[in-house]
Amino acid sequence: MFAKSLSLSLMASELRVMFTRRRTWAMLAAIALIPILLAIAVALSSEQLAPGEGPPFLDRVTQNGLFTGFTATLLALPLFLPLTIAVVAGDTIAGEASLGTLRYLLIAPVGRLRLLVVKYLGTVVFALAGTFTLMVFGGIIGAILFPVGPVTLLSGDQISLMESFGRMALVALYTTISMTGMLALGLFISTLTTVPVGAMAATVVLAGVSQILDNLPQLSWLHEWLFTHYWLDFADLLRQPIELGSMFSNALLQLGYIAVFGALAYSRFTTKDILS
Amino acid sequence: MRISKRWVPSIAVPAVIAVGAIAVPLQANAIDLPDLSPQQVMVLMQGADVTEFSGTIVKSSNLGLPTLEFSSMMSEDSIAQMEEKMPAEMADFVPAVIESNTLTQAIELISGSHTIRVYVSGQDKLRAQILDPMSQRDLIVNGNEFWVYDAKMATALTGTIDIEADPAKQAEAEQKVLDYADSIALDLSSPEAIADYLVSMVDETSQIEVGKDHSVAGRSAYQLIISPDSQNSLVASAAVSVDSETGMPLRVEIFSTTQAEAAMTVGFESISFDSVDQGLFSFTPPAGTSVETFDADELMATLDGYEKPEGYVSDYEVPAEPEVLGSDWDSVVHLAALPTDIPQDLMATELFADMLTEVPGGKVFSTPLVNVLLTDSGEVYMGAVTIDYLLSLAN
């Protein structure tokens, strides 16, 4: 059903609009700054971090520049990445509504379901761009400032340079999957309001609340249902043999969020009077 | 107002997910194996001869102890910084500084939840990986060589287990490795080891029966339920899941008399009996690792030949030999006096003080599976028995 209703030209125009906006590029540039600033700070600091000191992986950066991407992903995960993701997700429907362009979009023979799907896929593409920006710029700045070589995994095994790039791509992909549930949540919230900033803020707040709840031991029964629960488990991809259990659990959880909030967004958006 | 049928998916999708979340675990119980008597299950288990497998073991406990989460993102330094910068009113939000020492590591080990991947090939090849968040600890045993690797601290320890003709010496060497693993909180207990211990306890002092057939780690299993006869025991029952095909113990759950949910669970989450990649058993420490060599013989020689300087008092000296009172489920360890160092430090900490309760004649540190009585006269009684029984022994 989706394949039929998915019009490629609508998708292309959505992506064109997204990637010609200055805001999109500003956010990607800001994301790229995370690994760059991180690597420069580590390079300028005369103090060598002892193993186990500071955030995980940071002490490895000076030995192998490729770790910059992993460290940057880790540091961006709690707040910065969700923030940019929420801006894009919260803007989907509410943004068009506030600009008064939603009406025109729907006057063209475009079904509301199709519009929702296209809007959602557009945000997923942005998430993919964001996570790969962290990895690619991390890799580049790491290679400029530090030696680059085979990556040492958490199990102490070393993997070839090619395989290291493979693991970097896998971590970026994992992080993108981690964001898909939150994107669906943002899409739903965006159908509730015509004020995009409200939808963005609500989405970021929920990501924060979810992370806090995940840290309360009294609520351990709830943890595996929280969309942020598996975010930091990308480290499982840095073990040898690779541990894919958290990848599957994460994907299943995110699919659940996509199904629930996608359905809610559909119900809300298709029954709503479009006034602007 | 008529509600549009477009709201149907919003109700149907969560309903389907809820049904799935309930139905999938239920399937684990829909298994019917040929009936066996408890003795037959025990024979099946003791005949287990699996020497090639890999799997993921998950351990979790529910002991009512404070969960000490060693935050993967925060070091003690950063917590100290937070304390400085935060306004005083918000002090409650600063995570308590948990000093990572032997005591906290021990508590973390028994109260936390751990995921361990194990690879076993033949009699003499083992790799165990404790999957810590953002880190990992490994133990590799290959023939007579062993490695312990800690990814976070980038340290490794290596040595050889002397396999000579003398089996006693070999056992001694293996014990030393286990002791060492213990000291760095590398927990090596497996469902198999615990099940063997439990079965060794089975005699006239316990009831034993076969529970419901069920599924563990995707394999059909018999359940052996062992319950102590003793009125004093804190252990209500222990349930051992035995693989119906190989006889290998797949999971052990220990239930306490004081709570309904299992106090401790150790079991395979997944298991495979396929042959294991031999490359996993060769280990070369990565560049930048500080490697220490562990020579058991040399260490023992140093310890044996070591003479204490005059007037030297060891911090860790136990002033009295521990003595075991009672037997089987009622065993209680009795110390005539407190070990000098550890408990003194410990009782000064607020964390520990909160865990003690006053009873007539002393203080009790109580968990669902173990009670420790510190009498006012300085004696220590500890065992998996009720407080009343400890008090009756003390008087």
Can you describe this structure?
The complex is a heterodimer of chains A (276) and B (395). Chain A has 276 residues and is an all-alpha fold. Chain A has one domain (2-271). Chain A has eleven helices and two strands. In chain A, strand 1 (151-152) and strand 2 (158-159) form a beta hairpin. In chain A, helix 3 (22-44) packs parallel to helix 7, helix 5 (80-99) runs antiparallel to helix 7 (112-145) and helix 8 runs parallel beside helix 11. Chain B is of the alpha+beta class and 395 residues long. Chain B is 27% helix and 30% strand. In chain B, the strands form two sheets. In chain B, strands 1, 2, 3, 4, 5, 6, 7, 8, 9, 10, 11, 12 and 13 form a 13-stranded mixed beta sheet that branches. In chain B, strands 14-15-19-18-17-16 form a six-stranded antiparallel beta sheet. In chain B, a hairpin with a 2-residue loop joins strand 16 and strand 17. The longest helix of chain B is centred in the first third of the chain and has 20 residues, at 8-27. The radius of gyration of chain B is 25 Å and the shape is globular. The chains are: A mainly alpha (276), B alpha+beta (395). Chain A binds chain B through residues 51-57, 59, 63, 74, 78, 152, 154-158, 215, 217, 232-233, 235-236, 239, 241, 243, 245, 256, 259-260, 262-264, 266-268, 270-271, and chain B through 4, 6-10, 12-14, 17, 56, 67, 69, 72-73, 75, 77, 117, 129, 131, 133-136, 138, 149, 151-156, 270, 277, 280, 283, 285-289.
